[in-house]
Design a protein that fits this description.
NAPRTase_N; binds nicotinic acid; 18 helices; binds 1-O-pyrophosphono-5-O-phosphono-alpha-D-ribofuranose; about 500 residues; seven-stranded antiparallel beta sheet; binds adenosine-5'-triphosphate; glycosyltransferase; nicotinate phosphoribosyltransferase
Amino acid sequence: MSTLQQLYRSSLSLLTDLYQLTMAYGYWKEGIAEREAVFHLYFRKPPFKGGYTIAAGLAHVVEYLQQLQFTEEDLAYLGSLRGGQNEPLFEQAFLDYLRDLRFTCDVDAIPEGSVVFPSEPLIRVRGPLLQAQLVETPLLTIVNFQTLIATKAARIKEAAKDDKVIEFGMRRAQGIDGSLAAARAAYVGGVDATSNLLAGKLFDMPVSGTHAHSWVQAFESETHAFEAYGKAFPHDSVFLVDTYNTLEGVRQAIEVAKKLYPSGFKLKGIRLDSGDLTYLSIEARKLLDEAGMTDTNIVASNDLDENIVNSLKQQGARINVWGVGTQLVTAYDQPALGGVYKLAAFKQENGDWNYTLKLSEQLEKTSNPGIQQVRRFYDENGFVADMIYNEAEPLPEKVLIVSPLDSTRRKSVPEGTPYKDLLQPVLAKGELVQELPDLKAIRKHREEEIGKLHESIRRLLNPHSYPAGLEANFHQFKTDLVLAIREKGEAALKAR
Ligand SMILES: Nc1ncnc2c1ncn2[C@@H]1O[C@H](COP(=O)(O)OP(=O)(O)OP(=O)(O)O)[C@@H](O)[C@H]1O
Ligand SMILES: O=P(O)(O)OC[C@H]1O[C@H](OP(=O)(O)OP(=O)(O)O)[C@H](O)[C@@H]1O
Ligand SMILES: O=C(O)c1cccnc1
């Protein structure tokens, strides 16, 4: 059973918007359900005003697509839906069609943990129109959230540098699934462990934690509380020292550690959860070092995010483990990634491709037509530029990349510059092409990818923007298509 099914123990096929099913019904009635279509999933702006985004969620997308199969219960529910005049919304023959439906599209995707940029398709779905349309919403719900949280985690890790970061957010997460998906995505993005046990079990990721204030409150004194915890966990105790008075708590922790030392006890760490974390960590470090406990960790928590972690480090805080909850799992400063899923190519009856786009008043919201691929150029120092192009059309010898937002901004890439195409086959006619990487491999990939970005793009505040754009001919094709559609629109208006 897939991890998603383990969690929900039921079919997830109805995890989509009603309008996906009404469109599916319409396509089926029109006889175009099986016509080949290409959709791309992409976002328009990096979250958190950052310079890069970390792709995440693909493994769950694949699990979702592979389990797609309407059960008798699902079909009975759909059959029970009624229209405006109390007639069944869907006719029985359509429900019979759904009963036999399996996901048979080709899916190409940028691997999880990759750095990605606006307009680049993270996922390309090519296959029967009805199927490719139906999965829009679940793909977006999975990828938007996990990509958002993986990116937030990468930023926190960027600030924490070589220190450990533990995700503590379940209690403040957006519900049960929010907490689990966030724990996984945060791990993809670079945190080292989670306090969320179910995430640890489902996703095979490390779990870690300390104890709460209630533990201290449940004993007649802080000393008794620390002693009892220390006896239970002689090698895994991190004492929370701020229940009453932080520095007094540190002294108590040291006393208890010394007392338990002959029994083989070693204090793994202390945790600070309030007050001036710079001052308190510096003073705590002094006390611990004076007691010879130089490798006892100092963990800090309390509404931390990448900016506070960064500031505390700049202030000289002596914290070496960061517990981050609310701000991470809710992506507090930007609670959603605006990823979209757009139709870009549709086969006509004569077998030719019809490249389509969604027009918008705002240039950045006009989608890209064609069967897209992303080519990333690199040199010995790292990534140089990304180019979105139409795979179905020949590429010119000389590579010119045009900014999607300002066509006067262009970058030429010298001939012979090495490159790789980022979208890789994941499903062929619905079948897994090869095993997906596990979380450890995804994390390693993310680390390598971020390492190839210039510092100016990695920085948290006002980063430089990475050159990512459209191949010049592709850009011209899109512009011509936009002009043609606008002209058609005007002609229609005049004809009225
Ligand atoms: N030296 C510091 N520089 C910048 N921010 C800090 C510093 N020390 C703590 N903070 C942050 O300041 C924010 C506010 O902390 P605040 O003082 O309100 O908490 P507290 O009252 O000490 O703790 P609590 O409300 O949990 O008892 C928190 O996000 C915390 O991480
Ligand atoms: O602050 P976060 O980044 O979300 O990290 C998790 C917080 O959860 C716990 O607090 P608790 O639930 O006891 O609440 P409080 O400390 O906010 O009072 C813990 O002591 C952290 O402060
Ligand atoms: O283990 C901890 O210290 C912890 C877990 C969840 C939330 N806050 C702290």
